[in-house]
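Lab notebook, bench 4. The sequencing result for the construct came back, and we need a structural model before the next group meeting so we can plan mutations. Quick request posted to the team channel:

Model the 3D structure of this chain.
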Amino acid sequence: MKIASVNSAERGETDRLLTTVAQQLGDRGHALAGIVKVLEHESTFDNGCDMKVRVLPAGPDIQITQNLGVGSDACRLDPSAIADAVAQVESGALEGAELFILNKFGPEEASGRGFCAVIGAAIEQGIPVLVGVGAGGKAAFDDFTGGLAQSVNPDESAILDWFKD
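Done. Here's the predicted structure in token form:
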């Protein structure tokens, strides 16, 4: 089992790293599965908390947040959009993938939903798994992986070296 997490203390850096690494590996001809953040998406929300993800290797792009209005402090993740992203990845080609990337082990995954089954399927097929994990999701991710995941430095070279090993 080859699974690793990446976490940067700098806001947005983990997303940038994973998206950049996916682009580099895709450009080199590696077969990828999973999702990464669409970096060029400009938020339409007042608080900037608006996100689209790209299903690897080439889309579609799916908006996974919902506008709950001014002053709302509820979770902006759209569960139906996340379910759509999961379905898109599941219907894609895990078979033949050389790497599965998940931009973030988030609340859905911490609850045992979201991409958990897809991560498990990738591991069962011997596909390396790379996951962005924020400080708030680390304990849930460690529980999910049984503490067997390697932590990779938030650096493009370190991530690419981990992939090559």
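The radius of gyration is 15 Å.
Will bring this to the meeting.
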